[in-house]
From TrEMBL:
This is LuxR C-terminal-related transcriptional regulator. The keyword Transcription regulation applies. It comes from Paenarthrobacter aromaticivorans. PANTHER family: DNA-BINDING TRANSCRIPTIONAL ACTIVATOR DEVR_DOSR. It holds the Pfam family GerE. SMART domains: HTH_LUXR. It comes from the Bacteria. Keywords: DNA-binding, Transcription, Transcription regulation. CDD domains: LuxR_C_like. InterPro entries: Tscrpt_reg_LuxR_C. Residues 363-428 form the HTH luxR-type domain.
Amino acid sequence: MTQLTESKRRPDTGALPWQLLDAIADIAQAPLMRIAESLRTALAPFIKCSALVIFTEDCTGRPQKKAGEESIVSRVSIPELDRVRAAIPGGDPWRAKAVIAGKEREVLALGYAPSNALLVLTDPAEGQSEDSERVLSYLWRLTAARIQEKVSDAPPSYLLESRAASAERIRVTAELVDQHSTTLETVLAALRSNSMDDHAARTAVTDMTVKALISLRTLNDRTSDLVEEPVSTAFERLREDLRPLMHFSNIDIQFIEPPANGRALPGEVAHAARAVVRGLVLAIAEQPDVHRVRAQWDCDGENLLINVRDDGRGELSPEAPNIERLRQRVQAVNGRMSLDVMQGWGADISVVLPLDPPSAPAGDVAAWGLAARELEVLQLLAAGQRNRAIAAELNVSENTVKFHIRNLFRKLDVRSRTEAIALAHSAGLR
């Protein structure tokens, strides 16, 4: 009788969409590296697609997050995604044909206005219901907000990987520009030669090649823009971040702007700088009798110099957990933070963030203690080879390659292929 009574009291949850709820929970908890795969899995019961691509410029080191067919996710380019983003008429799902990964495909795309992020599904299944598209819009908004939140609250590990990825992307793009510019300029010289008599063909090919050169230069500028942010723009974003606090509190925040012509900030430095100042202002706001905070940025050509001062009682503790977390953020980009607390006069915090990554000490390769086979794998990694190609080159299995890569991560003290490649390049391995 007792069991029957308890059974009647227990709510009937069988009708709840547990699969969808579990998928939402997975998106909410997913790290940035896995969030595209989590979103694709969540969408699978509603909208099937060959590949899913997220494009967000908030992530300086890895603006694309992808899942699906390798032939698509390995070839999709930023200019292609830019064209799709420009074509979307509004916030509703947009279905049309677009060139993705070098081929015209059916796509389903959505934007996200707060961060200007883009979601693209390639080859989506036909005949989607209105409810399916509503689920798509909901899950995309959740994912985009999650990415924005993770980036704005970037932990030290993200900042380290972002810096390594940014450096690697700049290097690869610069090499491509040099290589293709030389090739195209040589072709131009040949086509302009008086020894060629087909004038019409020469003119047509010359025009086409000039356009290709312009496109290549534009791609280089575009890539540089993604990994750098003008210091004045970065500071204005900080001001916007703190505007709600200024509106809803009695604290007057005074902003001392950096020189407008100051050196552009690497993306991870700009993120770290905003996160640190936001954290400091919030920590200061918790202190009693604080009426005014001054936030100042400056540049000396090599460092971003940050100073935050308040007019409180000087009760901010350097040992407080929130201050220690901010110190770790600063250290993640090789910076320094000092805090001077004056009883009855407030706190004065100085932060120095280097704009360039530290140079690798001589002899790093030998100091890593790599076995001969591990060094071979690292050299092939640095050359841009994937696991399958490395396995074929060394005549071993892919599992053996994965085993060596795990050992490399441990010996190099890195967490990703990107970090390992950047470290190898800094030590002269190509």
